[in-house]
Amino acid sequence: MNAPDRLRAVEAELNYMVPMAEKPFVYTYTPPAGTPGRNGRIEAHRVTIRDARPIVSGVSLDNEGFALVSGPAKTRNYYDKDEIERVCYPEAIDLVRKATGASRVVIFDHTIRVRPADKPSLTSRVEMKDGVRGPVGFAHNDYTPVSGPQRVRDLMGDEAEDLLKRRFVFVNIWRPIRGPVLDAPLALCDARSVADADMAATDLVYPDRTGEVFNALYNPAHQWFYFPAMEREEAVLIKCYDSLTDGTARWSLHTAFDDPTAPADAPPRESVELRSIAFFDD
Q1: 95: number of CA atoms within 13 Å, CB side?
Q2: What sign for the dihedral angle of Cα 19, 4, 252, 193?
Q3: What's the sign of the alpha-carbon dihedral 116, 189, 59, 142?
Q4: Please, which residues bridge with residue 275 across strands?
């Protein structure tokens, strides 16, 4: 990434997990009586978030862990599950295949995220009807060296063990439902600025299984970027796990943030994120 200090930037607060002795956990549903929904604390740190648009051609999944791509957005109603699977999934598969060179891309689910009109704190857990959720307002990565391979086993059945012998990459596709996105844009951290010690493995407890994610611990060395005013035809690809261990970016921390330069009357953010696995022949 060339000359980041010359890029336009905003100063904003990003939320990080506070270091703790025990392993963190988060319930994705109402926990049993007497059990807290989470056992970790989050604290805000003021950071510089640079505009990556001027250097977009030099930003890649394998170096920084994220990329901005463009492609059709023919879905009319993102709140219609059948239409998303019929129209949006193939579009997203094409974007990931072109960006990675993967021989096969599988999309296994998606989430619609909408910030309510009263714009609650990004650390609030917002759950609306029909599975619509609020933006995630703390720095994290979706998979770990434990949960990445396990998710392949969960999803790919009898094929899993053979697929695990070759490279596979989890890629999230994040795109606006309406643009431009001015409220709660997405901040992305250059993977090369993140140390292993900055990542806290955290249990993500579902009703039927327990996954594992990384929550981020603050490090002033982190280099944060964003793509302001994203439109419907644009998408951010986020690498959430790479089975390669040869120095290629393995993941990218990311989080929604409150842009202090956004207009007060900016429409609440609406976005869709699709989760994919890219498989390679070697």
Answers
A1: 29
A2: negative
A3: negative
A4: 109, 172
Q: CA 67, CA 168: separation in Å to the nearest integer?
A: 18
**Strands of 168-176's sheet in order across:** 66-70, 234-242, 168-176, 270-279, 104-114
pLDDT tens-digit profile, the chain (282 residues): 555 678 899 999 999 999 999 999 999 888 899 899 889 899 999 999 999 999 999 999 999 999 999 999 999 999 999 999 999 999 999 999 999 999 999 999 999 999 999 999 888 877 777 789 999 999 999 999 999 999 999 999 999 999 999 999 999 999 999 999 999 999 999 999 999 999 999 999 999 999 999 999 999 999 999 999 999 999 999 999 999 999 999 999 999 999 999 999 999 999 999 999 999 998
Structure-block tokens of residue 82: 């059948």
d(CA 89, CA 107): 7
The DSSP call for residue 84 is I
> What's the rounded Cα separation, in Å, for the pair 235 and 262?
20
Q: What are phi and psi of 91, to 5 degrees?
A: -60, -45
Integer Cα distance of 165 and 157 in angstroms = 14
User: Is the Cβ–Cβ distance between 257 and 184 less than 8 Å?
Assistant: yes
CB–CB of 213/27 below 8 Å? no
**Beta-sheet strands, E only, within 31-181:** 42-51, 66-70, 104-114, 140-141, 168-176
* Cβ-Cβ contacts under 8 Å for 145 (sequence gap 6 or more): 241
pLDDT in tens, 103-134: 999 999 999 999 999 999 888 877 777 789 99
